[in-house]
Structure formats: structure tokens, C-alpha cells
Design brief:
There is one protein chain. By secondary structure, this protein is an alpha/beta fold. The protein folds into 3 domains: 103 residues, no CATH class; 164 residues; 92 residues, no CATH class. It is 52% helix and 10% strand. It contains 16 helices and 8 strands. Strands 1, 2, 3, 4, 5, 6, 7 and 8 form an 8-stranded mixed beta sheet that branches. Helix 15 crosses helix 16. The protein is globular and about 85 Å long. The protein starts with 17 loop residues before the first helix and ends with a helix. 30% of the residues are buried.
Length: 433
């Protein structure tokens, strides 16, 4: 059930109003007064039931999501910092200083499930609207990157060992006695995989890998035989995943790289230091002049970059209310020259008849386009897009959108703090004269 909004109380000597105790020039203090919190109340109110226990305030939950991405914190850490930091509390709509945890960390998980990626887009919309007309440029830069999932580097031996361990656990929970559990054998066989490329260890490692696969297949088949019908139905999806992993070979398509994140793709972006990345492809769009992110889209199943542009422009239209006229991209998008009325600019050799000015103009455009690369790096290292800890495709989409929203908020904070500094500087300068 939706909770009532905070109502300001009377000032007292015991419980002072937070706004009267804090520095009004603080960045978070100023940002909290600029964000249109009523917009979230209107948009998310329909997601709540009319019965049951009252939920936590919408502003509190949205504020915690913003702070989590802005400060690059986990769910547990942002809740802990909230109790210690009065500016966090004011940002989330508190009127008096609180000494208790506002929510459990798991409540943030439930709220993310409640609003979903579409709700996250509403948070991104608000972060774009903070910049006003600066976000409405006629040209955008677009690029794709990989948002890696929080999984171990996948190998066949690791997956087969996990299948065996999960099969043993399923049998134990169902009260089934297996012929053999192989617990000590599995540990020994996995140790044999260490440094398997060494000539003296290669033969033993290959033999151990075959044995791990044999054991995993044996345990899965035994589960199929011995599990009762109702338990078999309960674990149907898990067993199908186990069998798919055991059946896949080096040349198989749509491989499974993780038992708990089956949607993970293996993507190669041609990086010298990281040949393969395991996660999902995401597309980022930013304005040319002001560098505001106006698009952050999940591209499922590693599509060709040029085929993602149609959905990218749809999202930009949803978030900003208008489409750009020009989109500059790298050669990974070649093959697409226009989508509707939007021109797609891709680096290519100049025409023989092109003037020096036209050549200079194109060089300048694509040099500026390269500026999207450090923006992506900031998203990864400063706003939690490097390794995604949220589950499933919805988690992938939610995380990259929230990272983009936090980037826009940070950009507004920096520009606004510079504006305040210049304002005070010129004020004191005129006073001296």
C-alpha cells in the first residue's frame, strides 16, 4: 500500500528541522530542491496496492537509488551511509534527523522490481530535464560497450563441477540417496586444471576435464531417474540448463556461460587487454556540445551495432520528446546511412571534390565523437556500470539506465557548483571595488 507523504512539523528545541541545520550551498542540498519529486509520486503511485501494510515513501526509495549510483555504493552501504549523513536524509525528503535505518537493503531490490526498467527511464528523464534546453541538441554521438556480469570467467570444468554440486544439493533437499557424491574427487579433479597449458600438465588436465563432465552427466541422469514427479517438475528448468551445458561443444551456438545468469553473452570488442567480455551489449547516446547522456539502452544477444540505432532513437524520443537530426558513430555502424529523417555520419575517406573546409569539418566531428569513450569509462568506473550485480536482463537494463541518470546528476552538480563559485567571486570582487 502506498505511504503518505511527509508533512512538515513544528520546530522544537528537541527535534530541529533539518533544513535549518544544513549548509544551503551544499551540492546535495541544492540538487534536492531542484528535482521534481512530485513527478515520481504521480508516476509510481499506480504501482501500489490500496490494501496491506503502508510502503516506504516513494521519494525515499528514489533518493536512495540516486545516491547508490552517484556515490558508487552497494544497497547495504547506501542504507548505512544514510543514517550517518544528514545531507542524504534531506535529499530523501526527511524533515528531522533520523537515527534508525530507513529501509532494509532488500527493500531496494523490491522497489527495483516494482518500477522496472521503464521506471528507471523516468529517473533518467528527470536527470535530463535538469539541464533544460542544453539536452535538446540536433546532433548526438552513439557508441556501444559491454556491461559485464558479475560471474567468474567461464570454463567447461568450472561449469561441470557446479552442475555436480547443485545436483548433490537437489538430491539432499529431496531426501534422495545417491550412489556416490564424488565430493572429494571433484575437488581433486578441479585442482588438476591449474596451469593446464603447461606441456607437463596438459594430458592430466584433459583427462580430469573429461572425468568432471562424466561425473556431472551421471549425477543429472540419476536425478532424472530417482526424483519424484512433483520434485522433477519443480527442478525442471534447472535440469534442462544442466543438460544444455553438458551437450554444448566448442562450436555450439548460444552457449550457456553461467548457471545462474543464462542470458550472458560472450562479446569480443577487439581490446588487446581483454579479448572476451561476458555480459550484455549496451548503447550510450550523448549530446555533441554539452555531453549530456540522452540514451542508455540494453541490446540483448549482441546484435550488430548498426541494427541497434532504431531502438536507440525510439528511446531518445521517449526521454527528451524529440529526435536528433544527426547521429555520429564509429565504423562499427557502417552500412546504415539514415533512419527516417536522421542522418547517420560514419568516418570514411573524403570525396575528391570535397573542399579543405569540408574535410576539416568532418575531421573535427569525428574527433569530438571520440569523446564518448571517456564518458563510457566514467559510467563504468564511477557509476557502477563496469560490473553489474543485478540479476537478469531487467537488472542489466536497470543498471545502465541508472548509471546514465547518475552521470547526468553529477554533471549538473559540477556545472552548478562552478556557477555558484563564479557568482560569489564576482560578488566579492565588486564589493572590494
Amino acid at each position: 500500500m502506498k505511504n503518505n507523504k511527509h508533512q512538515p512539523g513544528h520546530l522544537s528545541f528537541v527535534d530541529m528541522n533539518l533544513s535549518s541545520l544544513l549548509d544551503p550551498k551544499n551540492k546535495l542540498y541544492d540538487l534536492s530542491n531542484k528535482i521534481d519529486w512530485s513527478y515520481f509520486e504521480e508516476e509510481f503511485s499506480v504501482l501500489y496496492s490500496d490494501t496491506g501494510r503502508p510502503a516506504k515513501a516513494i521519494r525515499l526509495m528514489v533518493g536512495l537509488l540516486f545516491l547508490k549510483q552517484l556515490e558508487n555504493l552497494s544497497d547495504e552501504m547506501v542504507v548505512e551511509r544514510w543514517v550517518q549523513n544528514p545531507y542524504y536524509q534531506y535529499f530523501c525528503g526527511e524533515i528531522e534527523f533520523q537515527w534508525q535505518f530507513p529501509v532494509a537493503a532488500s527493500d531496494l531490490v523490491h522497489f527495483r522490481h516494482r518500477i522496472g526498467p521503464k521506471g528507471a527511464e523516468k529517473l533518467l528523464t528527470v536527470s535530463i530535464n535538469l539541464h533544460g534546453k542544453k539536452a535538446l541538441e540536433k546532433e548526438v554521438f552513439v557508441d556501444t560497450t559491454v556491461q559485464e556480469k558479475n560471474i567468474t570467467f567461464p570454463t567447461d570444468s568450472k561449469l561441470h563441477k557446479k552442475i555436480s554440486e547443485k545436483s548433490i544439493k537437489i538430491a539432499k533437499d529431496a531426501g534422495i540417496k545417491l550412489r556416490r557424491t564424488y565430493k572429494r574427487t571433484l575437488t581433486s579433479l578441479l585442482q588438476s586444471q591449474h596451469n593446464r597449458s603447461h606441456p607437463k600438465r596438459a594430458k592430466k588436465a584433459r583427462s580430469a576435464a573429461r572425468r568432471l563432465k562424466t561425473i556431472a552427466g551421471s549425477l543429472v541422469r540419476e536425478l532424472r531417474r530417482k526424483l519424484p514427479a512433483e520434485k522433477l517438475l519443480k527442478h525442471k528448468k534447472e535440469l534442462e540448463i544442466f543438460e544444455a551445458v553438458l551437450a554444448q561443444t566448442r562450436k555450439s551456438k548460444n552457449k550457456i556461460y553461467s548457471l545462474h545468469e543464462t542470458e550472458v553473452c560472450c562479446i569480443s570488442k577487439g581490446k588487446e587487454h581483454k579479448k572476451y567480455e561476458f555480459g550484455q551489449k549496451v548503447s550510450i547516446a550523448k549530446t555533441r556540445k554539452n555531453g549530456i547522456i540522452v540514451g542508455a539502452l540494453l541490446c540483448e544477444n549482441n546484435p550488430y551495432d548498426g541494427h541497434t540505432l532504431h531502438e536507440v532513437f525510439k528511446q531518445i524520443q521517449r526521454l527528451t520528446g524529440k529526435n536528433p537530426q544527426i547521429c555520429s558513430a564509429d565504423r562499427g555502424y557502417r552500412g546504415v546511412t539514415s533512419i527516417g529523417e536522421i542522418q547517420i555520419k560514419i568516418p570514411k575517406p573524403p570525396k575528391k571534390k570535397a573542399t579543405q573546409y569540408e574535410k576539416y569539418k568532418e575531421r573535427k566531428r569525428f574527433r569530438e565523437r571520440a569523446g564518448i569513450e571517456p564518458v563510457i569509462s566514467h559510467l563504468k568506473h564511477g557509476f557502477r556500470a563496469k560490473r553489474n550485480f543485478l540479476k537478469g536482463l531487467h537488472g542489466d537494463s536497470f543498471n545502465i539506465i541508472m548509471a546514465a541518470a547518475a552521470y547526468n546528476l553529477k554533471k549538473w552538480l559540477k556545472s552548478h557548483s562552478l556557477y555558484i563559485f563564479l557568482q560569489y567571486y564576482f560578488h566579492f570582487k565588486t564589493m572590494k571595488t
